[in-house]
Design a protein that fits this description.
Strand order of the largest sheet: 1-2
Order of helices and strands: HHHHHHHHHHHHHHEHEHH
Radius of gyration: 33 Å
Distance between the termini: 94 Å
Largest sheet: 2 strands, antiparallel
Number of helices: 17
Helix content: 40-55%
Structural class: mainly alpha
Number of domains: 3
Shape: elongated
Number of strands: 2
Strand content: under 5%
Length: 440
């Protein structure tokens, strides 16, 4: 084996080790890393491997990234894979003979390499490639051991009794990556739920282009794979469409309206989005991004900071409700879009019971203490609610004050604006206007 192949192993190990040691691994006070920290470190390592040149190139132009996947060509390379002039000449002779035997047209193939000079050059190239890959593999093992600790890598790199190290040919990089994931501080279900909720409540920053926002959201979804949750494209497609539909109701998002109409014509509301439809939507929104003024948009959608967790809202079957107390309207209108009718009704009944217990202690001992929702005297059939598909009745609110009445003057919650397909105006605008009118 030529000197170039021998030095290639050491050079590759030194260079890759220097790259990987630059990546930080955050830990807690006890020196323990969590799943997200481990995943980020692995991602940084994979980025370096993808950009690292290996002699002879790689199948997908991804450097030595294939080392991370067991069963690939690079992962199967052994340090003992040594090629000579004779082995190269024999390989090409056998290859030509095999092509000749399998040729349907009876064509005779000649070996591509026939001279010892060419065979020597080819052998040196292959040997350099092999030793480069082995050097990278050794660098990965050393970097992981240094960053994560020998207690993480010993099960992979040492023999069963722990008395000695295994040969570099007896383990694969994928086993080290699995050891990193298994050795991470186990997240609680509450932490995983928070990550999932953060993704579902992800608000696009429309001062950036839609593609940038989607890439960020998709990256956040990818992080959930490390905790056993994989979101399919239909969910990401829905979240993409949800954010842009909210934006197009505002004046600064008017350029999205044509794109939304095009998408609605092409895909029905119950379409299960996949990579193809997401690509179509991103292409439509890219056209709108090209003509709109990004500086007009806010950094986040209005009231998004107070949005309830969408997952909890869907699971609990919450619906929009109204507030009947005018004195607390400002406070309760903010909660109107997310407080369930059942909870509101239950609170009213409990309040009534406490009042009756204090003020009318001598009443009948009947087991029945109140009226059901359907029997309330102040139930009002509302044509505005019925028109948009909402439950066609509410309580203590007349039709003219209904949020879904197109002629209503004053603030409406965002859910009502979405139902009416009109632009949402923040509540602060109406408060400021009222103060101005009072002064005048």
């Amino acid at each position: 084996m030529a000197d170039a192949a021998v030095t290639a192993r050491y050079a590759a190990k030194t260079l890759v080790l220097e790259l990987l040691m630059k990546h930080d691994l955050p830990t807690n006070a006890a020196g323990q890393y969590n799943v997200e920290a481990g995943t980020r470190w692995i991602s940084a390592m994979e980025r370096d491997l993808r950009e690292f040149y290996v002699p002879g190139g790689s199948q997908n132009n991804d450097g030595v990234l294939q080392l991370c996947n067991a069963g690939t060509e690079l992962s199967n390379i052994k340090s003992t894979d040594i090629h000579t002039v004779q082995s190269v000449l024999h390989y090409h002779k056998e290859l030509a003979a095999r092509k000749t035997r399998t040729s349907a047209a009876g064509k005779t193939y000649e070996p591509e390499i026939t001279t010892r000079s060419d065979a020597n050059d080819e052998a040196e190239r292959i040997n350099t490639r092999v030793q480069t890959v082995i050097g990278v593999k050794e660098a990965i093992a050393e970097a992981i051991t240094s960053k994560f600790g020998a207690n993480i890598t010993n099960s992979v790199l040492r023999t069963a009794d722990g008395s000695d190290f295994k040969s570099v040919n007896e383990w694969v990089v994928e086993e080290l990556l699995d050891a990193i994931r298994q050795g991470a501080d186990r997240p609680t279900t509450a932490e995983i739920h928070n990550q999932l909720g953060t993704l579902f409540n992800f608000s696009f920053n429309f001062q950036q282009k839609v593609q940038q926002n989607y890439d960020t959201m998709n990256a956040n979804a990818g992080k959930l794979k490390s905790v056993g949750i994989q979101l399919n494209p239909s969910i990401l497609g829905f979240l993409l469409l949800h954010n842009v539909e909210r934006a197009q109701r505002h004046e600064w998002g008017r350029d999205f309206r044509t794109s939304i109409q095009t998408i609605r014509k092409k895909y029905p509301y119950n379409h299960i989005h996949d990579a193809t439809s997401i690509s179509d939507m991103l292409a439509e929104f890219a056209g709108a991004d090209a003509v709109r003024n990004l500086a007009e948009a806010p950094s986040s959608l209005p009231e998004q900071a107070n949005a309830v967790d969408l997952i909890s809202q869907l699971l609990r079957g919450q619906d929009d409700t109204y507030e009947t107390d005018d004195e607390s309207a400002t406070h309760m209108e903010r909660a109107a879009a997310v407080q369930s009718d059942s909870e509101s009704s239950a609170d009213t009944r409990r309040s009534r019971k406490r009042t009756d217990k204090r003020d009318n202690r001598g009443r009948s001992n009947s087991r029945y203490r109140g009226k059901s929702r359907n029997r309330r005297d102040d139930s009002i059939e509302c044509k505005h609610c019925e028109k948009v598909g909402r439950r066609p009745n509410h309580y203590g609110i007349t039709e003219d004050k209904c949020y879904l009445n197109p002629k209503r003057k004053g603030w409406r919650p965002e859910w009502a604006c979405e139902r009416l397909d009109i632009e949402y105006v923040p509540e602060k605008h109406f408060r400021d206007k009222k103060k101005k009118d009072d002064k005048e």
